[in-house]
Amino acid sequence: MKFKENLEMWEKFPAGHIATMEQLAELLVTAQTSKNVPQSMWGRLRRVLERHAPFDSKTKTKDAERETQRCRCFSDIGIYPETVEDLISAFVKSRNVVMKFDGRFTIRGKNSDANYIENMIYLWCEKLKLFNNKKAISAAFQNWQSDEDDRQLAEAVDRVRYDPSIDPQQTELTKLVQLIVAGAGNPSDTARNQSAAETALSSFIYRVKNHMRGQWKHGAHLMPIFHGRQGCGKTTLVNHLLSPIEGFDSEIGFEMLRDNSSFYQLSKMPVMFFDEMAGIGKADVETLKGVMTSTGRQMRQAYQTASVKTVVSTFIGCSNRDIRTLIRDETGNRRFLQIDMKHTGREEIHQIDMLKIWRSVDENNVAPIYANKQLVQSVQHQQRYQSPIEEWLESVSATGPTKAANLFANEYRHWLDAHYPGDTKFANAQKFGLELTRLNDDGLTNRLSITKKQGVNYYRIV
């Protein structure tokens, strides 16, 4: 017998009639197993229970309210929750609430958010007169979100876990770089660039996989930057590369580095994808490099107190412009490796098995960036930004030993006025001398010879 029919039968009982225990059990079971019950029917159930159920006469009102409440809970969320934790689990399951790792929610397939869902739970509890402690409900819902993050993260870690039997020679990774890396003019340089790209991509995957499982490899941060013309397939490639960990990456801009509430995502999201590097400023470069080398940073989640959090994110990017024009840092670019990309079609990119590539990288081994350090450095040396002083050194004629002040006034300043007039006001002899010394000491030029007389450096251009 259905709930509605059973209820109508009880409503026809004459005044003073008391139902049997079997009739009560049947009514409660049909009520508990009914779905989408109109609000009015619960009021009717409470009234017939109070009039005709075999309850103690002294407590029949309370018993009727209690049994009605239990039936409503079972009907709506499938259980009668004894704790707020049970309530949250049953409620989100009954509403088909899906939470993504990036914090997005859906309810029965429609977009929603955490605040809306939490308010739904409050109102549901208010309606059923159940768990009137909003703080406890809020705490339980936040803990459910944290547990759900952990569950999804564990699943992703297991999905991309290293498997030595899948691709021991990393042939799929080689296939990828041969498909996308642009020719360098001669076969040996092209082969070197392909090998460096393999190292950069495997190092990226290595760090992401380790950070997803809480094994911190902050020193192994090498950011691959895909460089090529608009429409060459850079964004398609990165999206496909990240497909094995879909939902664990976030596409962002550099304004994130200046926004405290967004900055907090660095302590959670495994991958941050800068789809266009062209907007990066000098201050952004310094912040980016600082984050890449930090184990922890002070961060503040919205509406919470700032605290030091572990940096989880690993960076990847795309650029239409050469990084030498973006990352103008004379001290080097050792945290970045540009992968010059030729035009590659969407179909070609999607034929690469990215999951095979991820599972071919051994997260328990030495970081690829350490195993191939010299290879990476040789490519980075060619990609690094050359200061105006370096450019000038490549074109200036040989000189005898000269003080920095004289060389600056008689030679360099005139060249700087002609080539970089906007930089002239920031240049002076002291900065000029320090930069010449740094270039010489770091082995970045073979055109300088420095001698010291009475504590003063003399610079000879050879």
From TrEMBL:
InterPro entries, alphabetized: P-loop_NTPase (IPR027417), VapE-like_dom (IPR007936)
Domain Virulence-associated protein E-like: 220-358
Pfam families: VapE-like_dom
Superkingdom field: Bacteria
PANTHER family, per database record: SLR0554 PROTEIN
Protein name: Virulence-associated protein E-like domain-containing protein
Organism for this UniProt entry: Thalassospira marina
